[in-house]
Amino acid sequence: MSKKDKSAELNTDKEIKVKKKLSAGRMILIILLIGIVGFAAFTFLGMKDGKEGPKGGPDMTDENKETIFAVTTTEAVSGQIKDILKVNGDIIPDSSVDVYSDSSGKLSKLKVSLGDYVRKDEVIAEIDPSRPGMSYTANPVKATISGTITSLPFDVGATVSPQVPIATVGRLQSLQVRTFIPERFISRVKMGMTARLSFEAYPGEEFMAVVTELSPVVDSISRTMEIKLDLTDKDKRIKAGMYAKISLVTEVKEDIVRIPSDCIIIRFGETFVFTMDGEDHVSKRLISEGIRINGVSEIREGLEVGETIIYQGQTLLDDKAPVKVVRTVQPLK
């Protein structure tokens, strides 16, 4: 075999090997293309099925599912509500009188002690008006009313004058409560109003009182008006000087619509509640609120007795929102 024949044969073998490699590469490329087209077709069909649903039914993808809110409900009821004004005050004697001496001098004798009962014109102290080089008879100081000694500001030996009281006598058989009402509330306070008193000395107990005195003027410095209340029942445990917490009942309303104050939402200038609309949706209801006291609110307009309202879980709700009632709270009593 000549050299030319051998060279031709080698070239032929190389061409065959190159053709085989090209054929294999084409096959791999075709397989990849078929796989890509198949995956794309599968994805497209899946998306189509997801949008239309079986037989053209509603969309059931996770993105479009409704959020259902868990809520607690209660019921609007009819009843009584009281408007209360809370202030603080002091227990004072019904009548209290300061006792003065007739002359200046030294307090030589003090014949009574704090808490002693004295009668009118009884001598309670003696004042020695003597001066250096001059001697005078001691001047007696007499009680001007019958009652109990509630204050003795001086000790024996102190120098006193007619301008300063040396004792205070009070009638403790009848006690009063004295308090001061801020000017903005005085229109709500009237004679005969009832009040509940509480004392730190007797926690959990309440004592009744009635407004019996209203000052005719408002203090121009403190901007308050003084009022006094009489205790309805005498109780020896209550003593002059005690600190009292006073709850004045300024208004009583009967047969009004009442709901827990926590049900009410104030948002963007609107006051409203959510009521149940059917079994699984709520309705936004604009209301007009009246008295609010101790977690209970009066509803003047927008709600009827017996309607079911959302008590808890209403913060994120909107009108017609879907809900699930998980608990029902007993209505107000």
Structure description:
The chain is built from one helix and 22 strands. The radius of gyration is 46 Å and the shape is elongated. It has a six-stranded antiparallel beta barrel. It has a four-stranded antiparallel sheet with strand order 3-10-8-5, with no helix packed on it. Strands 7-6-4-9 form a four-stranded antiparallel sheet, with no helix packed on it. It folds into four domains: 3-56; 69-80 and 255-328, Beta Barrel (conserved putative lor/sdh protein from methanococcus maripaludis s2 fold), CATH 2.40.420; 85-91 and 173-253, Efflux pump adaptor protein, beta barrel domain (Elongation Factor Tu (Ef-tu), domain 3, Beta Barrel); 96-170, OB fold (Dihydrolipoamide Acetyltransferase, E2P). The protein is α+β, with helices and mostly antiparallel strands.
